[in-house]
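Subject: UBP-type domain-containing protein structure
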Amino acid sequence: MSSRKSLPSTPEATSLNRSQITFSPCVHMTKVLSSHARDTVLRSYGLAIRVSLLASPGSATPERFVSKDGSSLPHSRLIKLRAKILKCKECSSSLSPSFMCLQCSYVGCWKKGHAHAHAKHDGHVFGIDAARGHILCFRCGDYVGDPSLEEIRIKIIRSMKCK
């Protein structure tokens, strides 16, 4: 699969509203969410969604981001920080779709197969599409989800729109 250049299709291309999209869980997702790792996975997913959506191109992010401690950053600085964080760890590409590993801090690109190679080498199963926040199961080769993950994603999207 590492030579595969096209991503699995997502419902983004349909007329569905983004907040209405839910991917079905796969056996791997069901297994991990039924394990003792559930809370860690949900917490990691929430953090990754924030990174994915914060200052993403086309987002409704305000001109300045104000954090909980009152400090602020201009939107342009957030875009630069996001691009720096989401570069492939192997080739530093930020042009190819990148995936954040759900099990560790690795970020890899899709085009050159670095995300998939990491998953295969380290035995990690899930990558979060940095552009959309959707979860890709590397073993199934498809986007997957779960109502608990969708609830986290929708809650974060709504909180970002309200600021």
